[in-house]
Amino acid sequence: MKKKSSTxxxxxxxxxxxxxxxxxxxxxxxxxxxxxxxxLLKGYLLFKTSQADAEAKPQLxxxxxxxxxxxxxxxxxxxxxxxxxxxxxxxxxxxxxxxxKLDATLPIIHGTDEEELEKGVGHFxxxxxxxxxxxxxxxxHRDTVFRRLGEVGKGDLLIVETVAGKFTYKVRxxxxxxxxxxxxxxxKPRATLTVSTCYPFxxxxxxxxxxxxxxxxxKAE
Length: 221
Prior knowledge:
28% strand, Sortase_D_1, Sortase
């Protein structure tokens, strides 16, 4: 009887131990799986939250920097303003008229009376001085300084050098007018050089017309 009772108690103890171990393992398993699941769930939620925040925030856009190309044509410097500190006296040499096409350099005398025209090219005293804004008028005899002026035409250059600088003009227009045509000396909106001589060049005696070159200032130095 004692042996059977002892065996029963031993068997009951084993079953109790096994049950306890089972409960412990089950509990540990539940704890482990729940902990890992919670961690994974937390990590997933954090990832999705960060992703949503990133999509909601405006993205920084760095503009593309394009290579700056140099201008096709350099900007032209402003024309130099002619400055004369005093008005020249009648009969005074104020500079030179250079006509590249004729390879000629002619003195410019202030005034257009016969006395001045005998010395060179006369500057009409009532017009502005060369290089200034407006119409500067020069005149000369066809049988002296302007003997070959008829060879100069549209597109040719006329250069005037004075104390105020060097001024290059380009012939824009050639006109033949009556001797009493006053449009030759009218004011101009920009720096203009008007050169006049008697015409026709081969006319014998007092010529009834005038050969006119109208030139625009293209360079001032």
